[in-house]
């Protein structure tokens, strides 16, 4: 799959939506702001926003679900390869 890089310009309202979604997603995952995977979660939130989602709760729920799935996969993979 070829990924096309685009330049996005975000308004202050866009940033507020993404920040709110990141904070809610972190809460759903019971993580603090200093968690080691916060950057990955933030990129996930931005990707969902870039794909057209604008509802803070929808973005947060989707990002938290995807992040939890990635964390579970990493845990299982580590057990099989470690």
Account of the 3D structure:
The chain has helices at 12-28, 38-50, 56-81. By secondary structure, it is mainly α. The protein is built from three helices and no strands. Helix 1 packs across helix 3 (56-81).
Overall pLDDT: 90
Q: What fraction, in percent, of the residue positions are helical?
A: 55-70%
Overall radius of gyration:
14 Å
Largest sheet: none
Low-confidence stretches: none
What order do the helices and strands follow?
HHH
Portion in beta strands: under 5%
- How many extended strands? 0
- The general outline is globular
Roughly how many Å apart are the termini? Answer: 30 Å
What structural class results from the helix and strand content? mainly alpha
Count of helices? 3
TL;DR?
This protein has helices at residues 12-28, 38-50, 56-81. With 82 residues, the protein is mainly alpha-helical.
